[in-house]
């Protein structure tokens, strides 16, 4: 059972997103939605790309929302991986 939990954690570590990377991408490519592509928000990324970040407004708003979005993406990915391995809230089945 511990092997299954370790394997799930290893799989999660491989797909986990980093807030520092997202902020760096925001700084370099924020106006065209590079940070959104990184986080898997393809639809919003394309919208930012064609509107130049909502004329800069979405880009500015994302400065304050990136941390929360990274946590949400990581939480969803972790839950999916743990569920696939049969692990619920720290309990091994």
UniProtKB/TrEMBL annotation:
<dbReference type="InterPro" id="IPR007829">
    <property type="entry name" value="TM2"/>
</dbReference>
<keyword id="KW-0812">Transmembrane</keyword>
<feature type="transmembrane region" description="Helical">
    <location>
        <begin position="21"/>
        <end position="39"/>
    </location>
</feature>
<feature type="transmembrane region" description="Helical">
    <location>
        <begin position="45"/>
        <end position="67"/>
    </location>
</feature>
<dbReference type="Pfam" id="PF05154">
    <property type="entry name" value="TM2"/>
</dbReference>
<keyword id="KW-0472">Membrane</keyword>
<keyword id="KW-0325">Glycoprotein</keyword>
<keyword id="KW-1133">Transmembrane helix</keyword>
<dbReference type="InterPro" id="IPR050932">
    <property type="entry name" value="TM2D1-3-like"/>
</dbReference>
<feature type="domain" description="TM2">
    <location>
        <begin position="17"/>
        <end position="64"/>
    </location>
</feature>
<dbReference type="GO" id="GO:0016020">
    <property type="term" value="C:membrane"/>
</dbReference>
<keyword id="KW-0732">Signal</keyword>
<protein>
    <submittedName>
        <fullName>Molecular chaperone DnaJ</fullName>
    </submittedName>
</protein>
């Amino acid at each position: 059972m511990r092997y299954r939990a370790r394997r799930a954690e290893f799989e999660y570590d491989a797909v986990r997103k980093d807030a520092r990377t997202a902020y760096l991408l925001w700084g370099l490519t924020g106006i065209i939605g590079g940070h959104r592509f990184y986080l898997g928000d393809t639809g919003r990324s394309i919208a930012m790309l064609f509107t130049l970040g909502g004329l800069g407004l979405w880009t500015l708003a994302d400065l304050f929302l990136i941390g929360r979005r990274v946590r949400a993406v990581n939480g969803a990915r972790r839950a999916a991986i743990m569920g696939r391995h049969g692990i619920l809230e720290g309990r091994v089945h």
